[in-house]
Amino acid sequence: MINVFQPALGKEELDRIEKVFDSNWIGKGKLVDDFEETFAAHLGSTKSRVLTTNCCSEGLFSSMHLCGIQPGDEVILPTISFVGAGNAVCANGSKMVLCDVDRRTLNARAEDIEKVITPKTKAILLLHFGGIPCDMDSIMALADAYHLKVIEDCAAGVCSTYKGKAVGTFGDMGMWSFDAMKILVCGDGAALHFRDEELRERAEKWLYFGLETKSGYENSVAQKWWEFDISSFGHRAVMNDLTAAIALEQYKKLPMFMQKRAAVHRFYDEALGDLEWLDLPEPIPADCTTSYYFYHVQTKNGKRDQLAKFLRDHDIYTTYRYYPLHRVPGYGVTGKFENADYAADNTLCLPMHQSLSLEDTERVVEAIRQFGKQYC
What are phi and psi of 208, to 5 degrees? Predict the structure, then answer.
């Protein structure tokens, strides 16, 4: 089976983990600090604005508390979003307000967001779909005009930039995922970015029980280091040196990962471009970069589901991300989302990862062309 997503791990990660075992320290330690420093530099930011946590969803949930979103406040997010974003808003007791998206990029636009702003709106929880940057100039101008917080879900955008600046560094908070199906992987883990350094300090405490003091190993001030106070009823949601060790080795491979993913993207573009029944992804603007997380096509003939089944029958796994939140009964949201509905009914994510061989991509293309000959 050719997988739609797949990590690329090797001996380098195993060797780095062995060193962690030998150190006898597998909790949060120096390697976590090293990775935060490394990732901050990757973003063009500083460690005083970057913090790791155990998963991107924790970042979404914590953003409600850290950004001061209260029960009853309205938070706008695109209906094509990860379920973790919807759950984060609803679990906070806030009101999830959905907006439509561009039917081709599947990103929310400023005009989509502005249509649903009310006096109760307090924040925009934005998704950069598949690492494709949203139009941040217009969205940030809108947020400034209405005095709204901006939280950027960049889970798949580890190398995505907008006009030379990393996505996730525009808003009050941004977050990237390193789970098993992302690009840079470490099993589970995430990085958070904060526009305000003071917010990063509060987040560090929030993500470790709200403790005002550090452990005895780190606390060089207190004589009785076992005594402590708390500033909030926080969680324990941290990375550890095992996951950080993997992440540091994966980071070294990131340029190579991007080259391979870009090559797959170009191959699909060239090999499928003449199929009149298929829309390929929109070109990325010249002043932006993407992380090539998805390669999503859209059928023009209503045969997306049939195509997906045909490919699976030929040992090629595909999927659609993300199922629109307005179609999830548990949320109880109704409304008119024409573009999102079109996307949800016609979009298919093809295999896209750095472990794909030329033979794999040729098989994918040949199966799609075969389907077209038989059914289109």
Answer: -140, 65
Domains and CATH numbers, the chain: 11-250 (3.40.640.10), 255-375 (3.90.1150.10)
Give, to the nearest 10 degrees, the angle between helix 197-206 and helix 56-66: 110
The dihedrals phi and psi of 35, each to the nearest 5 degrees, come to -70, -40
311-337: pLDDT as tens digits: 999 999 999 999 999 999 999 998 999
The pTM of this model reads: 0.96
Q: Are 213 and 225 in contact (CB under 8 A)?
A: yes
Q: How does pLDDT run across 43-81, given as a tens digit for each residue? A: 999 999 999 999 999 999 999 999 999 999 999 999 999
Average confidence (pLDDT) over 98-112? 98
Q: Which amino acid is at 97?
A: V
Give residue 212's pLDDT. 86
Q: Taking the CB of residue 67, how many other CB atoms lie within 10 A of it? A: 20
Directed axis angle between helix 30-43 and helix 241-272, to 10°? 30
Task: Determine how β-strand 95-99 pairs with β-strand 74-78.
Answer: parallel
Cα separation, 339 vs 102, in Å, equals: 6
Residue 280 burial by Cβ neighbours in a 10 Å radius (0-12, 13-18, 19+): middle
Phi, psi of 76 (to 5 degrees): -90, 135
Burial per residue of 215-232, b for 16 or more beta-carbon CB atoms within 10 angstroms, e otherwise = eeeeeeeeeeeeeeeeee
Provide the CB-side half-sphere exposure for 167 (13 A, CA): 30
Task: Evaluate whether 150 touches 123 at the Cβ level (below 8 Å).
Answer: yes
Residue 52, CB half-sphere, CA atoms under 13 Å: how many? 27
Extract the tokens encoding 151. Answer: 């939280």
- Rounded-to-integer distance, Cα 108 and Cα 150, Å: 13
